[in-house]
Each structure stands twice: as structure tokens, then as C-alpha cells.
Amino acid sequence: MPDLNLLIALDVLLEEGSVARAARRLQLSPSAMSRTLQRLRDATGDPLLVRAGRGLLPTPRAVALREQVKGLVQAAEQVLRPAALLDPAQVSRRFVLLCSDGFVENFGPPLLDRLRQAAPGIRLDFLPKVDRDTRARHESEIDLETAVVGRLPAQQLRVRALFRDRFVGVVSQSHPLASGEVTLARYLACEHVADSRHGMGNEPVDRALQAQGASRRIVTSVGGFAAALALARHSGLVATVPERHSGNLQQGMFAFALPLALPPFTVSMLWHGRLEGDPVHQWLRAQLLSVCQDTPPSLPVGP
Which is it for strands 93-99 and 167-172: parallel, antiparallel or unpaired? Predict the structure, then answer.
């Protein structure tokens, strides 16, 4: 395997035209520099530099190699130099964010606004979550994911909390629960729409009810919070949804605190460890975190 350090030596020799001056620049002894020149001659099969009076003149082969060698040395120096400060406006790149429709609805617009203003060359595509295996099937194309991390993630994944959320009940403004105190008995007496997706869903709500020997009267189920809220808006059903995830979708509806002792949960972003040190990815993560922290719940929770 060739010794790539010889390229640096050849670049300096061709610039200086002198073994002594090249030795000083490379902090070598003249004899060590002479041995390096001999190694270069052996490797290339050409004298490269020949004596002419008190100096050395490059051979035609050396002249032909000069610019190529300099370019290789400069490229190597660029690779080994610390990354320059990032200018997002100069970046042209595509990212994929795996998230729920509710997350896109609430946090997508302000996030895209930031990208358009600060990094117009960055394209962000939102990939919907279908089931638990979505990440495994799309690992190679996912740059970021938002999720409730119920257990320690795979070792190669990194996690950062984005915000805290909680389940709330949401009904139309004309629904009986939109007035008066929402007690557990009134909540259970209503008809409910449930989220049938794997993962977060409404499972914590139903587990909490089961612990009290109670259950909701579920008359239909859908595949997401947006669909649940759409049915609740027009059919008199109660939707139980994450407050911040579905905030914008609740406009014109009545939201209330659940009559259940349910702890809040944390929504986090996840990414593969191979992207940890990527400066553009770091910048995108910072924007996502800032947007989530700057976006409060869309509606106050009713009494």
C-alpha cells in the first residue's frame, strides 16, 4: 500500500526545488529528506528532480504531476480540518422526519417557516407513522423521529425530550360535557371514539379505567387523532387525545381535563448515532426543539 505521506513530501519538494529547503519546511534532516526523495523516485519510476547547477529542476513527469499532487494534498487537509461554522443558508439537503399527523399539524408550519427563512435549501419531508415497524422498514431514510419512549431505545439511537403532553377529552361545543363539571360518571355515560393505532393510542386511559373497574363505551375506532376529532366534532362522540399533539385540530371545540389520575408523558425526538456529530443535523434538531418549546397548547383546558 503506498505511503500517502510521500504526497506531502513531493508537493513541498516541487514547490521548493531544494532538498534542504524542503527538509526545513517539513522539519526533517537533509539526509532524511534525501531518502524521502529516493523513495519517491522508486515509487514513480522517475527521477522527478534532477540537479542543475546548485538547484534541482523538475522532470517533465514532475511538472505533469505538480497540480495533481497539490490538489490531493489540499483535499486531504480539508478532510482533516475541523468543520467550519455552519451557514444554514448555504445548505442544500433533504431530511425525513417520522412523526404523527398531529405533530405535523401543530409543529410542522412553524418548523417549515424557520427552514424557509434560515435554510431555504433544506427540504423536510414528513413520513407518517403506520405501525411500530415503520422505523425498522425505513431506517436508512429516516433522519429524525418523534415518539413517546416507553423503554430504553436501541443502543445506536439518541434521544432528546421535546415537550410534556397529557390526554384531554374533546367534544363539540354543543355536547353536554361542554357545560358543567366533567365527572367520571358523566364521562363514562357518553359514547366515545377510540384511536386504534399501535403505540401510544388511548391505552393509558383505558388501563386507568380498568384499574377502577370501569370502561368507556366505545362505539367506533379510527386510525389517528385527527380522525377521532373529526368524528367528535360532527357526531356527538367524545375524543380523548393528546392535548399538544392535537391542539390545532381542536379549534372550535371544547377541551376538558379528564376525570382520571393520569400522569403526563414526554414526547421526544430520536435519531441514529451516526448523525450525532453532523452539524446540519444538529442545527435541524435545535430548530425542532425550539419550535416545540415555543408552541404552547392551542386551547385552554376547560373546567
Answer: unpaired
